Amino acid sequence: MENTETGVHSKLEVFFNTMLREMYWGETHLVAVLATMRDEATTDALKECFSTHLHQTNTHIQRLDEVFNLLQQPAQPELCVGLQGIFDEGWQVIDETEAGTAQRDVALIIAAQKVEHYEMACYGSLAQLARTMDQDELADLLEETLEEEKDTDALLTDIAEQGINYQASKEPVDVPE
């Protein structure tokens, strides 16, 4: 039975819409997080990765706007507790690592990959739910974002493996006198 106020037909659609609003919140907040991560990164490759993903994140927001438009709904963010926790962890690793070290870059990569993995899980699930609801156009948009999240995750791994992890393993521990 359709709810005439919202145009929603099922509990699945209610859940889908909630997840969309949570991802919208996450993407809009990720813009500031990525800008900070870029500024706190030490290596040029990692700074460039964060800059590129910042631009992609703005595109992800635009795609979600398009999804909401196709659903004839306003694009309203809803707090995503999962991403908020991951963002908080990211701020913490900045506070707990020394600026200009490979250790900080390692911590930033791991923090960023936690976000990417959360987003990949959500976008993959949202795309599948859209297909279940015969919303192939929505699924295609969500899958575009999913692929970009996967590419960013792979790039972060490559950056780590190309030397940052090794460099961090050679940084001495500061021993208090």
Automatic annotation (TrEMBL):
Gene3D superfamilies: 1.20.1260.10. InterPro entries: DUF892_YciF-like, Ferritin-like, Ferritin-like_SF, YciF. This is YciE/YciF family protein. It comes from the Bacteria. The lineage of its organism: Bacteria, Pseudomonadati, Bacteroidota, Chitinophagia, Chitinophagales. SUPFAM superfamilies: Ferritin-like. PANTHER family: PROTEIN YCIF. It comes from Filimonas zeae.
